[in-house]
Design brief:
This protein has nine helices and ten strands. By secondary structure, it is α/β, with parallel strands linked by helices. The two termini are 30 Å apart.
């Protein structure tokens, strides 16, 4: 499922070229990072994942597949340095977030997302279509079972650019479960010009999608495409592809 999800980021002009520097904000276990390394030689990926249990799996994947080119940073990304409380979902780690209110305030939205995924699964998981959608509530309840909170460190894009003395970021992928605006606010004014392309999962709460589009346009990303993944048409989740 994750493989299907991350492959969708590499479209609408988003490419991986030899020697690229890629930021993976919200790396989870590292599927996107591994796939990026397989697209072209000499690519380097900075993978951000704050949740300790997930970061352990990310480090294992970086060791097995990264050949030293996956840099694991066990911190969340935000507008300022500090700490934050994250909600960790052991049965579905990709949903772990510092903003659980996006699901808590509308619990039916997650159930609907599960139901839509069951109706429109990746080709390799087409067997899911045989599961009656009446079970979507039970599946949703299982996926969020055992949730608990953890306190994690936060960094900023500006801090990482400075620390690693980076002169460019060829692609910045942001999929951090509702913290995308905070992530963008942590990019220093002097650093925006270093970023060549972006793909962002935007949770369109309170007009956030339009906010992000306007911000990126102001920073020179005038080529923009917005789409929703198949099965998420009734959600507030959008993918924004942006290039200079």
């Amino acid at each position: 499922m994750l493989d299907h999800h991350v492959e969708g980021y590499l479209q609408h002009g988003i490419q991986i070229n030899p020697g690229d520097v890629v930021f993976d904000v919200g790396a989870n276990v590292g599927v996107f990072g591994v796939r990026v390394l397989q697209k072209a030689p000499d690519v380097k990926v900075f993978c951000f994942e704050p949740i300790p249990d997930i970061a352990d799996a990310l480090r294992a994947n970086a060791s097995l597949h990264g050949d030293g080119r996956m840099v694991v940073i066990q911190e969340g990304v935000s507008a300022t340095l500090g700490e934050a409380t994250f909600t960790y979902f052991p049965n579905t780690p990709a949903l772990s977030t510092a903003h659980p209110e996006q699901w808590d305030e509308n619990p039916g939205a997650f159930k609907e997302a599960v139901k839509s995924t069951m109706k429109n699964p990746p080709e390799s998981m087409r067997w899911m279509r045989w599961i009656p959608t009446m079970f979507s509530g039970l599946i949703a309840n299982y996926l969020v079972k055992g949730r608990h909170t953890v306190t994690c460190k936060l960094t900023t894009i500006a801090e990482v650019i400075k620390k690693h003395n980076l002169d460019r970021i060829d692609l910045m992928k942001i999929d951090c479960e509702g913290a995308e605006w905070d992530t963008l606010m942590g990019i220093g004014d002097e650093h925006w010009g270093k970023i060549k392309s972006m793909v962002i999962e935007v949770h369109d709460e309170h007009g956030r999608l339009e906010q992000v589009k306007q911000l990126l346009n102001k920073q020179g990303f005038t080529r923009q495409v917005v789409e929703q993944e198949e099965g998420l048409e009734n959600s507030k989740m959008y993918n924004l592809f942006a290039l200079r």
